[in-house]
Write a structure and sequence with these properties.
There is one protein chain. Helix 2 packs across helix 4 and helix 5 packs across helix 6. The chain has helices at 42-52, 99-109, 114-123, 134-146, 290-301, 309-315, 330-350, and strands at residues 5-9, 16-20, 27-29, 36-38, 86-91, 127-133, 151-155, 162-164, 169-173, 177-181, 188-192, 196-204, 212-213, 219-225, 229-235, 239-240, 251-258, 264-270, 323-325. It has three domains: 5-52, Rubrerythrin, domain 2; 86-158, Ribosomal protein L7/L12, C-terminal domain/Adaptor protein ClpS (Ribosomal Protein L30, Chain: A); 162-207 and 247-327 and 345-350. The protein has seven helices and 19 strands. With 351 residues, the protein is α+β, with helices and mostly antiparallel strands.
Length: 351
């Protein structure tokens, strides 16, 4: 590093980058997430952490993260299922493993094509392989462990069915549970906290598409050519690209609650589908965001539920570390990984 450079760490996303020393004391935007911070020493860094929401004034103490498979402290009465002998293999951690490493192991022990195996790992959002024989799945998990990839195998019969819960908005949050307004007449359904088995937060990463020609609106200009006369041509000069709406850029949360028959009900809502009136005096101009307070309250009321590290980051103000969804298929794949994790989590805890 040159002596005239300073290494700066973004308090919002954790990215590290270099800036000239002459910028000390000035405001600088992070090249990764765009968060504005003050360039300086530790004091300036602490101030930026407070502005980013990590240590807001008057905020509750940071939430302690539970260990990998903590005892849930609640029961999940699921009917006994006959093993199907076919398994899904999932990563233990939320981070994505190297597709080449996983695909080489899967292809060596199965007849899956290398390209198909790599695509599954790259796009599976944690689901590494599907429909694998149970005995082969155990060997794959053991081999992946020796390659530094922690994984687990779960029988298809043990994966609970997930149904979406229909509601209008989240109307309140109390010690009793999460209040859902189910229709326009104001009827409320309460999801008690002991029914929630886990959840996750996501956000869609939208990049503007390539410029597109706008229909019509061209300029009709005359062209005079000596000896041939005057011609009029239509030149389309105005272009436009897709601009994401505010609703598309909102973060959303999905809570998976116990339902009848041993299944799960998915309560999915975005930032604008919540009534934050219950927060009252906790809302401050320079304090944590409404969505951060909501997620931290949900995590405090469900200490035995399973949440991935990215959701805990949202609860403590690291909003840029939320789970980003790049494609339309990423969300269903990520939810399937979460359902498998919850089923495996509670199966391990009940053993």
């Amino acid at each position: 590093m040159a002596e005239f450079d300073l290494e700066v760490r973004c308090p919002a996303c954790g990215a590290r980058f270099k800036v000239p020393r002459i910028r000390r004391g000035a405001r600088q935007e992070c090249p990764v997430c765009g968060h504005a911070m003050r360039i300086g020493g530790a004091d300036a860094y602490d101030e930026d952490l407070a502005e980013a929401g990590r240590f807001p004034e008057g905020a509750p103490a940071p939430l302690p993260r539970p260990p990998g498979f903590a005892s849930p402290g609640k029961s999940w009465d699921r009917p006994a299922a006959t093993p199907s002998g076919r398994c899904v293999i999932c990563a233990v951690e939320e981070k994505h493993p190297n597709p080449k490493t996983v695909a080489s192991v899967v292809c060596e022990l199965t007849d899956i094509l290398p390209l198909e195996a790599r695509v599954q790992v790259a796009e599976g959002m944690g689901v590494l392989a599907e429909d694998i024989d149970a005995r082969v799945a155990e060997d794959i998990v053991a081999r992946l462990g020796r390659e530094g990839v922690e994984a687990f195998a779960l029988d298809h019969a043990l994966i609970p069915e997930v149904k979406d819960v229909s509601f209008v908005r989240v109307s309140d949050l109390t010690d009793e549970g999460l209040h859902l307004q189910v229709d326009v007449h104001g009827n409320v359904q309460i999801i008690s906290w002991d029914r929630i088995m886990g959840g996750f937060c996501t956000k869609r990463r939208i990049s503007p598409g390539p410029p597109r020609r706008k229909a019509g609106g061209g300029i009709r200009s005359p062209i005079h050519m000596p000896g041939y006369g005057t011609f009029r041509t239509m030149t389309r000069v105005r272009t436009r690209s897709h601009q994401p709406s505010a609703r598309e850029q909102e973060a959303r949360c999905a809570l998976l609650a116990r339902a009848g028959g041993g299944g799960l009900g998915a309560v999915t809502f975005s930032e604008s589908q919540v009534s934050y009136a219950y927060l009252k005096e906790r809302l401050k101009p320079r304090g944590p965001s409404k969505f951060q307070l909501l997620i931290s309250d949900i995590l405090r009321h469900t200490p035995g539920a399973f949440y991935p590290p990215s959701t805990w980051d949202v609860a403590v103000g690291q909003l840029m570390r939320i789970a980003w969804m790049k494609e339309d298929d990423d969300y269903p794949a990520y939810r399937r990984w979460m359902v498998c994790k919850i089923a495996y989590h509670w199966r391990r805890a009940s053993e």
